[in-house]
Amino acid sequence: MRTMHRILAALSTGAAILAVTAGSAHADPAESATPLVNPETGGRYAEYNGEYIDLSQGWQGAQICVEQADASIVCYDDEADYRAGEGLAADGPETLALSDCPSAHLCLWDDRQYAGPKIEFRQAGYKDLRDYGFAERANSYFNNRQTVSGLFDHHNSNGTFTLEAGPRGGTRDRHAELSLLREFRGGDGSWNNKIDELLLTS
Ligand SMILES: [Ca+2]
Ligand SMILES: [Ca+2]
């Protein structure tokens, strides 16, 4: 936990962050209709086309995965299925946009400019992206929440890098960035395909 404590200090926005502890946001599996974690891999299960897949072992063709209010994950084949499944209004042909990240969510996209496979988180807490099959994939992000989030790059030769993703409209609002390519990380370059872990604060 020492690394996490340093990260918490680095985020520097006070009690709201310090109140978050690893695992605290998880729903009690006994109260959930869906299994959350594969005990053999630590991977997160997702419901996808009526079956459960372990996201840490690959997305099996899913394009959009969404953390639900009970911390379970649901994945979809495409934008139309996603919008129908999540109760969102149908979108026009211009589907690659910040507006594809709903309010109160932090979204990561595999490609630049909010394109490609996408994962959405809404529950406060740490998210080890390896468990979600999304480590070192993100090239775009949008924190469409009311609180700051942390994006972490752990697995490199220079230790951990931390990028604050401020809430929309705040002083560290990064949502206007076109791509993580433009976000200098220090060390050996940009944040493209580097993020391993998230911290969403409540
Ligand atoms: Ca990528
Ligand atoms: Ca990394």
Topology (elements, then pairings):
Elements: H1 2-11, H2 15-18, E1 45-48, E2 51-54, E3 64-67, E4 73-76, H3 79-85, E5 105-111, E6 115-121, E7 125-128, E8 140-144, E9 149-153, E10 161-165, E11 184-186, E12 189-190, E13 197-200
Parallel strand pairs: 1-4, 3-6
Antiparallel strand pairs: 1-2, 3-4, 5-6, 5-8, 7-13, 9-10, 9-13, 11-12
The protein binds calcium ion (CA) (2 copies).
One calcium ion binds at residues 110-111, 137, 139, 193.
Signal peptide: 1-27
Organism: Jiangella asiatica
Keywords: Signal
3D structure, described in words:
The chain is mainly beta. Helix content is 10%, strand content 29%. It has one domain (2-200): Crystallins (Gamma-B Crystallin, domain 1). The chain has helices spanning 2-11, 15-18, 79-85; strands at 45-48, 51-54, 64-67, 73-76, 105-111, 115-121, 125-128, 140-144, 149-153, 161-165, 184-186, 189-190, 197-200. A seven-stranded mixed β-sheet has the order 2-1-4-3-6-5-8. Strand 11 (184-186) and strand 12 (189-190) form a beta hairpin. The longest helix has 10 residues, at 2-11. It starts with a helix and ends with a strand. The model is unreliable at 1-10 and 12-30 (pLDDT under 50).
CATH class: Mainly Beta
CATH fold assignment: Gamma-B Crystallin, domain 1
Number of helices: 3
Bound molecules: calcium ion
Rounded to an integer, what's the Rg over CA atoms? Answer: 16 Å
What percentage of the residues does DSSP assign to strands (E)?
A: 25-35%
What's the SSE pattern?
A: HHEEEEHEEEEEEEEE
Given helix and strand content, the structural type is mainly beta
Oligomeric state of the chains in view: single chain
Biggest β-sheet description? 7 strands, mixed
Kindly, what is the distance between the CA atoms of the first and last residues, rounded to a whole number of angstroms? 20 Å
How many E strands? 13
Helix content: 10-25%
Mind telling me the CATH superfamily name?
Crystallins
- Residue stretches low in confidence (pLDDT < 50, at least 5 long) are 1-10, 12-30
Could you tell me the mean pLDDT?
A: 79
Widest beta sheet: strand line-up: 2-1-4-3-6-5-8
Keywords: Signal
Protein name: Peptidase inhibitor family I36
Signal peptide: 1-27
Organism: Jiangella asiatica
